[in-house]
Amino acid sequence: MKLIFTGLSDPGLIRSNNQDYYYIDPEGRFFIVADGMGGHAGGEEASRIATTEIQAYLTSNWDSPEPSSKLLEQALWRANSAIVEDQQNHPERADMGTTAVVVMFRGEPWCAHVGDSRLYRLRQTNLEQVTEDHTWVARAIKVGDITAEEARVHPFRHVLSRCLGREDLNQVDVQPLDVKAGDRLLLCSDGLTEELADNAIANQLQHSPILEKSAHSLVEAAKEQGGHDNITVVLVALE
Predict the structure, then answer these.
(1) Tens digits of per-residue pLDDT, 180-228?
(2) N or C: which end of the chain has fewer CB within 10 A?
């Protein structure tokens, strides 16, 4: 399959700085979106460290005999350790952390994530959220304490149950990806999903066959709804 890809990041309308970070491997081997948090520029630093560490680890170990699932998992653990080490060296950034979602094409496609940055797959007209948010509200929905509609406006909707930059992080979610020609993948920060419901995202993705236009229209649609957070999208089309 041939891959076509693009990425776009925007600070949104409220925040003066952009704590999101993304990376697209020039050869289309892997894609990363990270959404940082923390004061004293900690969020920007956490997302930068995570993206840089994941990129470096995958690149340097790409030809190793390590199974893809293990390679991806180790890349995120490496990122977690690097952020924790930076916190120890810079106590003013002790509260920083970041989400991360990564898609990798190495033989079979794989995905890994920590936090609430998401991976979606659009197949024809059906948009599916592939990743599961590591948030308090996602857990509450799962056990039936609240509905998905209630979760969209819940005051705790941004509270993460997992993120990179924590010594007590005990799990990284890694899963194989089911993709075929014609699919589109969307990696995004919650600055997009906070403003746009899934049906609105699907409409934007289907509206334009040109990826750059789709990325731009997603970001602009999120800004039209308020643009309260940084907005980052990476799109991958499989042909």
Answers:
(1) 999 999 999 999 999 999 999 999 999 888 999 999 999 999 999 999 9
(2) C
Average pLDDT, the chain: 95
CA pair distance 175, 135, nearest whole angstrom: 18
31 pLDDT higher than 90 = yes
Domains of the chain: 8-238 (3.60.40.10)
Show the tokens assigned to 78. 């490496």
- Binning pLDDT at 50, 70 and 90, where does residue 58 land? very high
Nearest residue to 188 (alpha-carbon basis) of 122, 96, 143: 122
Who contacts 62 (Cβ-Cβ below 8 Å, separation ≥6)?
A: 29, 71, 106
For 200, counting Cβ atoms within 10 Å of its Cβ (0-12 exposed, 13-18 middle, 19+ buried), the class is: middle
Distance of CA 129 to the CA centre of its chain: 12
DSSP element (H, E) containing 205: helix 198-207
Q: Which residues contact 95 (CB under 8 A, 6 or more apart)?
A: 37, 38, 39, 42
Report the alpha-carbon distance of residue 188 to residue 186 in Å, rounded: 6
User: Rounded to a whole number, what is the distance in angstroms from the first to the last CA of the chain?
Assistant: 6
For residue 135, CA distances in Å to 95, 154, 209, 211 come to 17, 12, 33, 29
State what percent of residues in the chain have pLDDT above 70: 100
